[in-house]
């Protein structure tokens, strides 16, 4: 019988991350530097208390509460230089924990508060990505988030602007933010357009909302992947339909506890997902806000499902199949894993 993976083994394995937010994953020391460089009036923020501004509160009671930890990050992400810098740094941090492929997501419209255009925001992030890919042995892409609390016209503007960057850094589109019931109906036209343009589509659904939101995201919004989706187990019929459709889930264990999407780690739906052979990957969601890393998330999962190397390999291969990249990149990632085996 193959033994459960150890912490040391997990750290050495090639890894893939598909669900990580730019504004939730900034280095704290870089935030402090950018406050000085940009001469921002944020005197209340210091090295001693920055955790209070950028990490999820231990008393967080909901997804809405959790999202408050993004406020400071967004204030320093309003220049082209800072967007490029932080994109680069996140890929560098990922590389340092043996992540060989990463998809980083962000909402361009949230970075236009000081006058940047959507084009300028996307171009800055692509510069950071390209620089990281050139300097480190890591591949990846950018997912453009449209915000559920904003209008469908805003979503269409992001999709229209990002179209020219498809396969030039941008690899997909997402709907993120607070989750209302039946939100999918608000964005049908936008996601029809994204699908027509050839975007790969992933949707945040079934995190703070129902299993029906997951099904709607697949049937109405062309979702190939679902961010979180932990409420899937609420409906046996929806569970069976989604399973038969081979929809892929981006699971973020620590974040799910902090947002109260899941009440405890021992009750996390990923255990059932694993037992039922659903397709899913493990992710950080927000490295800084959740004070985590991908290695740490896998350590948590290893304890929940007694994960051994064969389980990990299966997850890795399934994840390669779900990435928003070419077959050539997928073949490369499979080869990297075979050569990195412990």
TrEMBL record:
Its EC number is 3.5.4.4. CDD domains: ADA. It is an enzyme of class 3 (hydrolase). One of its GO terms (biological process) is inosine biosynthetic process. Belongs to the metallo-dependent hydrolases superfamily. Adenosine and AMP deaminases family. PANTHER family: ADENOSINE DEAMINASE. This is adenosine deaminase. It comes from Peptostreptococcus russellii. The lineage of its organism: Bacteria, Bacillati, Bacillota, Clostridia, Peptostreptococcales.
């Amino acid at each position: 019988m193959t033994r459960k993976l150890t912490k040391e083994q997990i750290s050495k394995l090639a890894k893939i991350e598909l669900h990580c937010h730019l504004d939730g994953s900034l280095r704290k020391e870089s935030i402090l530097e950018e406050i000085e460089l940009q001469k921002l009036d944020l005197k209340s923020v210091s090295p001693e208390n920055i955790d209070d501004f950028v990490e999820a509160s231990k008393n967080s009671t909901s997804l809405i509460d959790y999202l408050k930890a993004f406020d400071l990050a967004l204030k320093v992400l309003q220049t082209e230089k800072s967007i490029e810098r932080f994109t680069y740094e996140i890929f560098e941090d990922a590389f340092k924990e043996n992540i060989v492929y990463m998809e980083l997501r962000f909402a361009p419209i949230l970075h236009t508060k000081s006058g940047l255009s959507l084009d300028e925001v996307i171009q800055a992030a692509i510069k950071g990505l390209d620089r990281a890919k050139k300097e480190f042995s890591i591949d990846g892409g950018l997912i453009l988030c449209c915000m559920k609390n904003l209008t469908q016209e805003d979503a269409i503007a992001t999709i229209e602007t990002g179209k020219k960057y498809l396969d030039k850094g941008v690899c997909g589109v997402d709907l993120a933010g607070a989750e209302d019931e039946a939100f999918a109906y608000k964005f049908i036209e936008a996601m029809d357009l994204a699908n027509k343009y050839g975007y790969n589509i992933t949707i945040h659904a079934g995190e703070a909302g129902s299993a029906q939101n997951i099904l709607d995201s697949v049937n109405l919004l062309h979702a190939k992947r679902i961010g979180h989706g932990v409420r899937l187990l609420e409906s046996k019929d929806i569970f069976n339909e989604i399973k038969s459709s081979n929809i892929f889930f981006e699971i973020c264990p620590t974040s799910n506890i902090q947002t109260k999407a899941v009440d405890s780690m021992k009750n996390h739906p990923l255990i059932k997902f694993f037992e039922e052979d659903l397709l899913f990957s493990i992710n950080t969601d927000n490295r800084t806000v959740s004070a985590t890393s991908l290695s740490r998330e896998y350590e948590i999962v290893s304890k929940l499902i007694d994960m051994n190397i064969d389980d990990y390999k299966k997850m890795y291969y399934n994840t390669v199949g779900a990435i928003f990249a070419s077959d050539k990149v997928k073949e490369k990632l499979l080869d990297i894993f075979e050569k990195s085996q412990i």
